[in-house]
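Thread title: Can someone regenerate the structure for this chain?

I was given the following input by a collaborator and told the matching structure tokens would be attached. They weren't. Posting the sequence so someone can regenerate them.
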Amino acid sequence: EASREKVSKFINSKFEEIIFTKNATEAINLVAYSWGLDNLKKDDIILISEMEHHSNLIPWQFVSKKTGCTLKYIPMLNDGMLDMEAFDLILSNKVKFLSLTHQSNVLGTINPIKDMIQKAHQYGTLVMIDAAQSISHHKIDVESLGCDFLVFSGHKMFASTGVGVLFG
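Best answer:
Regenerated them for you:
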């Protein structure tokens, strides 16, 4: 419980909003296979980006096949940034879930997640941020960001392997 308190202070969340998992991948899976399978249906859209790590791609492919919903991708520009004009065009009331990396593990691109979260919330879209790559380099304040879920792995910050966090 002391660890939960430290993590909640670290990302500025409430104590009860912290769930420990084995790693960020398990945290993503937990959201996809519990919330996703129970709440998504045929006409719904899950939105991710073309730069996602496989841990934030495979579960959503599975959920889309099981529920019949559509998985769409935010395209990337040639400079490695997300195409924000395309993002704005894709957003609609049909987009029920946005799952997005904060910082690409391949490109190093830092996505404008605060702005993206605000835009998604205008449509009632829930947002999960994969902060596995960014948590050790940037101050993450979930209250300020307004994300619905955030995941990260402890080993990216010199903690023991087998420790992950799901904020929700």
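The chain is about 35% helix and 20% strand.
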